[in-house]
Amino acid sequence: MKLIWTKESLINLQQIEDYISDNNPDAAFKLTDKLISLTNVLIKFPRKGRIVPELLVENIREIIYKNYRIVYDIKKSSITILTVFESHKLFSKDDFNKI
After folding, report:
1. Per-block average pLDDT, block size 10, for the chain (99 residues)?
2. Which CATH architecture has domain 2-98?
3. pTM score, two decimals?
4. Could you tell me the residue ranges of all domains in the chain?
5. DSSP H stretches of helix in the chain
């Protein structure tokens, strides 16, 4: 199983790190490192996350960590990290179509 990050997901991750870095660079690094490490587990356990409730599509799942949602798509031979964002926001079908 191969793990792929979309351009949007990498940009979002960098924006999260940059924002937190303004006040606490060490915490920012630790958070982004943790978010990345959570996705590495998906290679062995792709169905670990829950189905995204806004979409109810079996292969579109998410892992929630603290205030962040990591949304991913399970395919036959790969897992694509679609986006990372704050958990208070909803993931819409329009967001999915942009990816």
Report:
1. 95 96 97 97 96 93 97 96 89 61
2. 2-Layer Sandwich (3.30)
3. 0.90
4. 2-98
5. 7-21, 25-40, 93-98
